[in-house]
Automatic annotation (TrEMBL):
Keyword tags: Antiport, Cell membrane, Membrane, Transmembrane, Transmembrane helix, Transport
Similarity comment: Belongs to the CPA3 antiporters (TC 2.A.63) subunit E family.
Protein name: Multisubunit sodium/proton antiporter, MrpE subunit
Keyword Ubl conjugation among UniProt keywords: no
GO cellular component: plasma membrane
GO molecular function list: antiporter activity; monoatomic cation transmembrane transporter activity
Membrane topology value: Multi-pass membrane protein
Record localization: Cell membrane
Transmembrane segments: 5-22, 28-51
Length: 161
């Protein structure tokens, strides 16, 4: 991945030199040309194109923003009701995350989303305990968390390894 990025930046720099102008537009054009060259090179090697991981990271940010917005709306609905009909609880969510960075990102995303709070990982690291504001159906909460955050994190960190 670093080699691909270095080749891409080198081609962009050379493009700027050949154009004899130091503008952002020329850099972007050179970078785009570099991406095409790297894509062709990757086609002949046994590897993956580094922009796939960048795209996965952008999708993860989109998933987080969507979940953040939906969770804020849900919490606002709960707070605006006359009677707060909530069923909080602590749920053990089994996880496929292995590295500390994956686990830290997962815990961060869970804690930043209103209505959920990550408490801790189990000793063996196979489960994370979360507090959910609406935990009446723990299976639904687990399925939703695994479908959104965990799947997106795994796509960023391991999809192309």
């Amino acid at each position: 991945m670093m080699f691909q990025l270095a080749v891409n930046f080198t081609i962009a720099f050379l493009w700027i030199l050949f154009q004899n102008s130091l503008t952002m537009a020329d850099f972007i054009v050179g970078y785009a040309i570099g991406m095409v060259v790297v894509l062709v090179l990757v086609h002949f090697q046994d590897g993956y194109f580094y922009m796939h991981r960048v795209w996965s990271l952008i999708k993860l940010m989109g998933v987080f923003l969507r979940e953040l917005t939906l969770a804020n709306i849900d919490v606002m609905k709960i707070l605006l009701r006359k009677n707060m009909n909530i069923s909080p609880g602590i749920i053990a969510v089994p996880t496929e995350l292995k590295t500390n960075s994956e686990k830290a990102l997962f815990a961060l995303l869970m804690t930043l989303t209103p209505g959920t709070l990550s408490i801790e990982f189990s000793k063996d690291g196979t489960q994370i305990f979360i507090h959910a504001l609406q935990a009446e159906n723990p299976e639904d909460v687990v399925a939703q968390v695994k479908r959104t955050f965990e799947a997106s994190i795994l796509e960023v960190t391991r999809r192309h390894v």
